[in-house]
TrEMBL record:
S-adenosyl-L-methionine binds at residues 212, 241, 262, 307. The gene is rlmC. The lineage of its organism: Bacteria, Pseudomonadati, Pseudomonadota, Gammaproteobacteria, Enterobacterales. It comes from Erwinia sorbitola. Its EC number is 2.1.1.189. Pfam families: tRNA_U5-meth_tr. This is 23S rRNA (uracil(747)-C(5))-methyltransferase RlmC. Keywords: 4Fe-4S, Iron, Iron-sulfur, Metal-binding, Methyltransferase, rRNA processing, S-adenosyl-L-methionine, Transferase.
């Protein structure tokens, strides 16, 4: 992939850009194999590759510059701004959106936030595109509610210019720290749900719910989990750290008892909405801490699927899974190092199969799916 920003030394987010893509994947596979070398693996499946460019469905843009000439992109450590509108990781459709947003920021009087001076209002623009229908979710991250009325008044003109805008909101992030979003979300459109669909599963995305940035590879990941679970013929499973329900909803059948647990109430609302649309009657989702739920639950499902954040599932949940002894554990991880540590704690399980999914080309990061069986 060619990137003018990288060549000019202005952006180094894609640290592996100079490495040929196939070699990148080979290095990730070697890293994964090294992490699991002390655990016998029944089957290594070939890595699932990504498109090398235009694969991202979302943009997180720092807003800098002036209200008359805003820049959308990032800030270097010294405060130097870099415009990332031409980043080749974004789909072509984003260019027209960025082109409309710059004059809109000026018309709405959304003064970009100055980190050094701690002045201004507009901190970030967060843009997400549905691969299902091309509709957009646009979030303005503001320092306070001061400009919300101006933003709301100016919004109809932006909606006319960008009819694909389905969801617009303002997020309030008042602290002077490198935190992208705050707790308060103010809806600016009646609709706050971005409709998405991966494979044949309808998914719903609310402004503060997490969703994968590489939908093509995410679809492959969910489809693979479905295939593996189907082979096991289980009648009950837990989906811990379930997010908007992508894994569980792909794996569930009308006859299966599925319990999905996620700390985010917004994500759970999305999962429930999707389950209703699919007509699944034996599915329940709850906004709880996954470890607290699992360690307090008396019943034992045949399969526990875990999809934790980068920190992994941790010693407490591993110890309880050892005690609870489900026949199968399906572990999806965005951090193979913590996954390997967790597997080391699950001493009563053997690795049946492993597959790498290259969700993040040109970086050292990747996703991995691992099936564990009780021995």
């Amino acid at each position: 992939m060619h990137c003018a920003l990288y060549d000019a030394g202005r952006c180094r987010s894609c640290q592996w850009l100079e490495t040929p893509y196939i070699q990148q994947v080979s290095q990730k596979q070697s890293h994964l194999q090294q992490l699991l070398e002390s655990h016998p693996v029944g089957q290594w499946l070939p890595p699932v590759l990504s498109q090398p460019q235009k694969f991202r469905n979302k943009a997180k843009m720092v807003v800098s510059g002036s209200v008359e000439r805003p820049l959308l992109g990032m800030l270097h450590r010294d405060g130097t701004p870099v415009d990332l509108s031409d980043c080749p990781l974004y789909p072509d459709s984003f260019a027209a959106v960025f082109a409309q947003l710059r004059p809109f920021i000026a018309r709405a009087g959304l003064t970009p936030y100055n980190v050094a001076r701690r002045r201004g209002e507009l901190k970030y623009i967060l843009l997400t595109e549905s691969q299902h229908n091309g509709q957009l979710m646009l979030r303005f991250v503001l320092r306070s509610t001061t400009k919300v009325a101006q933003l709301r008044a100016a919004l109809p003109e932006l909606q006319r210019a960008l009819p694909q805008l389905a969801v617009v909101s303002a997020n309030i992030q008042p602290v002077a720290m490198a935190i992208i979003e705050g707790e308060e979300e103010i809806p600016l459109t009646d609709n706050q749900v971005l409709a998405e669909q991966l494979n044949d599963v309808p998914l719903s995305v609310l402004p503060k719910s997490f969703f994968q940035t590489n939908p093509q590879v995410a679809a492959g990941l969910y489809a693979t989990a479905r295939e593996w679970v189907k082979e096991l013929q289980v009648s009950a499973m837990w989906d811990l750290f379930c997010g908007v329900g992508g894994f569980g909803l792909h794996c569930a059948t009308p006859e299966m008892q599925l319990t999905g647990i996620e700390i985010s109430q917004q994500a759970i609302a999305c999962a429930q909405r999707s389950a209703e649309r699919m007509g699944l009657k034996k599915v329940s989702f709850a906004a709880l801490d996954s470890t607290a739920f699992a360690t307090g639950e008396g019943s034992v499902p045949e399969l526990v699927l875990v999809n934790p954040p980068r920190r992994g599932i941790g010693a407490e949940l591993c110890a309880y899974l050892e005690k609870m002894a489900p026949p199968w554990i399906l572990y999806s991880s965005c951090n193979a190092e913590t996954m390997a540590s967790d597997i080391g704690r699950l001493q009563s399980y053997r690795i049946v199969r492993v597959q790498l999914f290259d969700m993040f080309p040109h970086t050292a990061h990747y996703e991995v799916l691992t099936l564990l069986q009780r021995v």
